[in-house]
Amino acid sequence: MTSPHPLGRGLMILLAVSVFAGAGTIHYQTPMLGAFAVEFNADAAAAGWVATLTFGGFLAGTFFLVPLGDRFDKRRLILAELAVLIVALLAMAAAPSLATLALASLVVGVTAGFAQLVIPLTAELAPPATRGRVMGALLACLFLGILFGRVAGGLTAEFLGWRWTYVAAAVMLLVLAPALIRWLPSMPAKTQLGYGSLIRSLGEFLRDNATLRRASAIQFLLGISYGGFWATVAPMMLALHGFGPAQTGLLAIPGAAGIL
Fold first, then answer.
1. Owning domain of residue 93
2. Which alpha helices (H) appear in the chain, and where do they start and end?
3. Which of 115, 155, 179, 184 is most exposed, with minimal Cβ within 10 Å?
4. What pLDDT score was predicted for residue 259?
C-alpha cells in the first residue's frame, strides 16, 4: 500500500537527523559517570545509578510507550515525547544533586524512545521498492547517534563541563522541533485495541514466534552486557588511569565498525 505522505528527500533527512539526535541522548552520560562522582562527592556505585535509570527508563519507554504508536497518531506521540525529553535534558544540566540527576536521567531514558517511533513511521512512509535501503540508512544514523553521544559528549564534558553536554543536547532537539512540527506527517491509528490488550499482544507475539523470542533474548543479553560495560568503564578508567570524559568517550570509536 502506498503512503498518502510521500517520503521526499527533505523529510527523509529530517527523520534521519531526528533519529541521530535522539539516539545519543541516553548515551551522553556513560563517559561522564566519573565526573558525576567527583562533582557530587559520590562513589562509583552511586554515580552508576544514572546509567541504570537511564537505560532502565529506555527499556520501560520502549515496552510501555512505543506500542502506543499503533494505537494513536505517531506524530503526536513523537512530539509529546520530544517536548518532555528536552525539559528532562535541561533538568539534568541544572541538577543540584546526584539524586536529581538520576531522576531526570530516568525521564530522559523513557522519552528517548521517540526515535523508536520515528523508525516505524519512516517504514510506513517509504515505498516498498526502497524501504530496505531507507531503513538501512536510518539505522546507520541510529548507530552514528550512539557513537556521537559517547565521543562528542565526552569531549564537551572535558572542555566545557558535563552540564554543557546536556545543554547542547537539548538545544539540538529544540532546533529540530519546529521542523518536525511543520513537516512530520500524521499517521492514522493501526488498531483500536485498548492499552491493556495492546501490551498483552506483545506477549502473544513472543509466544507464537520462536524467531522473535530468540532475537529478543539475544538483544536483551547484549543490552545488559553493553550497559554494564559502559556503566563501569568511566569510573574504572578514572580511578586507574586518570582518564576524563574525553578519553573515555574515545573508547566508543571502534563501535563505528558496527555501522558496516
1. 9-259
2. 9-24, 33-39, 44-64, 68-71, 74-93, 98-111, 114-125, 131-160, 162-183, 195-208, 210-241, 245-250
3. 179
4. 63
